[in-house]
Amino acid sequence: MEIYETSATVEERGQVRVAGVPFAPGTEVEVTISPKRRSAEEFAAAWQRVCAELRSRPGVQDLTEEDIREEIDRYRAGE
């Protein structure tokens, strides 16, 4: 399957225009729209903020590796 990726900016009234696609007129295409991906640096910084927030929650510092392993085992056992 041939895939063509590009980016565009949402215009007024939610319109998005994509010009210059490499398909013949009349070709039926699938369209998926999502916010533009972050750069690796932006993603890493956001991930670090999430991890810091989770580590700061009450009780998290008291968890041990054994507690985590036991929780995983219970989950896998369907408990």
Stretches where pLDDT falls below 50 for ≥5 residues?
Answer: none
| Radius of gyration, taken over Cα atoms and rounded to an integer in Å | 23 Å
Q: How does the helix and strand content classify structurally?
A: mainly alpha
State the order of secondary-structure elements, H for helix, E for strand.
Answer: HH
Cα shape: elongated
Mean model confidence by pLDDT = 91
SS elements, strand count: 0
Sheet with the most strands, sense and barrel status: none
Strand content: under 5%
Tally of alpha and pi helices: 2
The end-to-end span amounts to: 43 Å
Topology:
Layout: H1 40-55, H2 65-76
Explain the overall architecture:
This protein is mainly alpha-helical. It has one domain. The protein is 35% helix and 0% strand. The two termini are 43 Å apart.
Give a brief rundown of this model.
35% of the residues lie in helices and 0% in strands.
Keywords:
79 residues, mainly alpha, 2 helices, elongated
